Amino acid sequence: MSRRASLLVVLLLALAPGALDANAATEQTCDQSTLSCTSGSGISVGMTRQQLRSLPKYPGDTGGVGNTQPTVWYEYAMTTGCTGDPPGSPTEDVMCMHAVTACQARNAQGPLMTVWRRQQGPDATDTSWHNVGDTCVTDVIPGGPPRPTIYDIQREFSLTPWSRPTLAMQPPNGQTLIGMPTFYRVAFPAAGYEPGEVRAVTLLGYRFEVRPVLVGFTYHFGDGASFGPTLSAGGVYPDGDIRHAYTMTGTKTPTVTVRYTGEFRIGTGVWAPIPGAVNVTGPAGSITVREARAVLVNH
User: What is the pLDDT of residues 91-130, one digit of tens each?
Assistant: First the structure.
């Protein structure tokens, strides 16, 4: 079956009437059980799940059981809520930032889809497509192709192979003294993605780019003390601003935790935030704290 053919479906549900004209849709809140909401840009999304299922299957359909076979019936299709162009247009399959994020702003599943219908049959008088409303869910009318949602992007972001940060320390050779400042500096290995590095992903056939955004570093010095979150990656002696003086001898295992949020974009469009954040802790280092003692020496 061709992609266009898979888009088209005749609704044969003899349910109660309730189709909404796109211009008559009223603003409502939306949640996981309803498809009515108002998107962040003010576009009205006014179809509940029941209303979508109750779209007329032929002109004059009132939801009852007809005794005669209609000679005109409706064919339905869906396109992304991006260009406003009807099915069959070269741009019907365009995916845009707005289609992905509009419904998420109101906690609906999304992405934003436009529902179209046209007459079919031997006595059809108007076979052009007409916009009958928008919806935040693509699986209500069978045959609608799956589209990436903000939740798909969020899940893909959580699967990012992170660059796990390590700590470089001074004094060198893994040893320091009680009371002496130890300097710390974050280093990212080449493996994985660090803040600002772009990762290209494909979701349901669409190309997206995601990138980690640094929220802050939290330093754990291995003796119960910590510092952060801070945007500072530290530095070396004498100007490094992440330093710690130990008060007890022994071997310490300092680590650093990076907190990331994320951004995504479609093609070369603007970057938009991905909901949520993730903490990535790097491997533990090792530093031995010793105590210096004065010794008298005869010359």
Answer: 888 888 888 888 877 677 778 888 899 999 999 999 999 9
Residues shown for the chain: 299
Topology, domain 154-290: Immunoglobulin-like (2.60.40)
Structure tokens at 204: 């349901």
Q: Tell me the two tokens of residue 138.
A: 């693509």
Q: What is the mean pLDDT of residues 37-64?
A: 70
Write the CA distances from 185 to 2, 89, 133, 178, 239, integer angstroms.
56, 55, 55, 20, 11
* Nearest partner of 7 among 138, 203, 108, judged by Cα: 138
CA distances in angstroms from 143 to 58, 78, 122, 128, listed in the order given: 19, 9, 24, 20
238 to each of 59, 84, 144, 171, 235, how far by Cα in Å? Answer: 81, 61, 62, 11, 8
Residue in the block written with tokens 């799956």? 146
Kindly report, residue by residue over 231-273, the tens digit of the pLDDT: 999 999 999 999 999 999 999 999 999 999 999 999 888 899 9
Question: Does residue 102 contact residue 40 with C-beta atoms inside 8 Å?
Answer: yes
Q: What is the mean pLDDT of the chain?
A: 80
Residue extents of the structural domains in the chain: 3-146, 154-290
Q: Please enumerate in sequence order all residues whose Cβ is within 8 A of that of 159, keeping only pairs 6 or more positions apart, or say none.
A: none
Q: Is cis: bond before 229, omega within 30 of 0? A: yes
Dihedral pair phi/psi, residue 189, rounded to 5°: -70, 165
